[in-house]
């Protein structure tokens, strides 16, 4: 598992120029991660291709773990912008399954990058639980599923769903299951964990 190299919090971009540099760094990291995987990515190469000083890169991302966790967060947030609204009469579990299917398909397009982001997020969560992408992903699932007032049990089920889907996705990335099996398993786990909510509401 990659290490979270430093305890200091990463700087956050504030001005338009800083945000533009930050985005360039993420785009460069995505290219290198997709080509090389986490272990072979060099921070100097990312800085060079992003056109920033290495000190600037480390100010925003103290380690590769910070860098690829931030990239995963950005991709989840982008997915939220693309998410299709829940159809009238569509069950929450089917709407959320659709979101997870889209996310899985996106990640499988660049397996090395997907591994890099997921490994980094795991390391980040182990070091600082609140710093991973779970809260962003949970919010997105609640929004897509039309769950406006989630109960503690709803949040627990979504946490379990994310963990189960994560395992299914790893199996697909490692080629232990096919894309079709990934899709079938995703729909199944959503229905198994979330249909109880519909039954209780009905």
Key attributes of the depicted protein:
72% helix, mainly alpha, globular, 202 residues
Low-pLDDT segments, ≥5 res:
1-6
Multimer state: single chain
How can the largest sheet be summarized? Answer: none
Which outline best applies? globular
With helices defined by DSSP (H or I, 4 residues minimum), what is the helix count?
9
Number of E-type strands: 0
CA distance, first residue to last residue: 44 Å
Structural class based on helices, strands and sheet pairing: mainly alpha
N to C succession of SSEs = HHHHHHHHH
Offer a concise description of the structure.
The chain is built from nine helices and no strands.
Write the layout of secondary structure elements.
Blueprint: H1 16-36, H2 43-50, H3 54-60, H4 64-82, H5 92-108, H6 111-127, H7 134-145, H8 152-173, H9 179-201
Structure description:
32% of the residues are buried. Helix 4 crosses helix 6. The chain is an all-alpha fold. Helix content is 72%, strand content 0%. It is built from 9 helices and no strands.
